[in-house]
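Design review, sub-item: ligand-bound model
Attendees: FS, YL, KQ
YL presented the inputs for the guanosine-5'-monophosphate complex:
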Amino acid sequence: MIQEQLFDEAAIAARVRELGAAISKDYAGKNPMILGVLTSSAVFVGDLTRSIEIPCEFDFIALSRYSDTEGIRFIKDTTASVEGRHILLVEDTIDTGLTLQYVLKTLRERQAASVEICTLLDRKQRRIAGMDVKYRGFEIPDVFVVGYGLDYQGRYRELPALYSHGSWPK
Ligand code: 5GP
Ligand code: MG
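KQ shared the predicted structure:
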């Protein structure tokens, strides 16, 4: 059940524009590859790329996570090779960090020229795998979030703002 609104459309749009401006400055002349983690980052990637004012490309990966210990695998890989490319990984939320830790390791093994992280939301309390996060939209408390691409059991992705949900998915 939806509880309170955390960030409204205007606050999200303003923060996404700031992130886009910073990325545009840092990546000028580098033709970065924006790499979104499906499905919940899709809305963010769509808005973020439109706020980036330099030439860039974007692509998506999809991952399946079995459990914290069993590991993670790609269910959709990149379309083009990442070798020699400047990769900006885009997530909606970093929680334990285990998903991105796996992706970072894989992209480095594939010899990307650089890999940085951009996340809309950062929930630091539950972090297991530490990592440098170069671009961060908002820090969030220990609540489950829905809306703006984020779901609870498939629901609420279409909502334009971000809300806390009363419970965590099982
Ligand atoms: P981590 O591997 O860092 O524990 O989890 C990150 C993944 O879990 C992300 O792909 C993100 O989409 C999902 N996730 C983490 N927190 C939330 C949340 O509050 N709401 C939703 N809908 N997904 C979340
Ligand atoms: Mg996700």
